[in-house]
Write a structure and sequence with these properties.
Elements: H1 2-12, H2 15-23, H3 27-52, H4 58-77, H5 92-100
Helix pairs in contact: 1-3, 3-4, 4-5
């Protein structure tokens, strides 16, 4: 499932959080919870954006909706383990590139 893959990648980018969840045997349940949240927010954003821009390309709407859903999830639920640095870019671009790649469709 695409959502679980994205969440797992985000958790792996936070080694302390990932290890703590793994040791406490909560990694899978956390992964599933966050994946459901991401899916729900993605679908809601797709619906909202489709209403705002009728006739727009559905794949463009889906990509923008995923970007917004990921941003919400990361800001609300998955804070960075290190203090933010102005020169450090959020790997959202990597997630969007993954979503847009032909092999990520499933």
């Amino acid at each position: 499932m695409l959502y679980k893959t994205i969440i797992l990648e985000l958790l792996q980018q936070r080694p302390q959080m990932h290890e703590q969840l793994r040791k406490s045997r909560k990694l899978l349940t956390t992964l599933e919870t966050y994946a459901r949240e991401l899916k729900t927010r993605h679908e809601a954003w797709k619906e909202d954006l489709s209403e705002l821009r009728p006739g727009s390309d559905p794949s463009q709407i889906a990509a923008e909706a995923m970007e917004m859903a990921l941003k919400e999830l990361v800001e609300d639920r998955l804070p960075s383990e290190s203090p933010p640095c102005e020169t450090e870019a959020f790997p959202l671009g990597e997630a969007i590139a993954f979503i847009r790649s032909p092999t990520s469709r499933g």
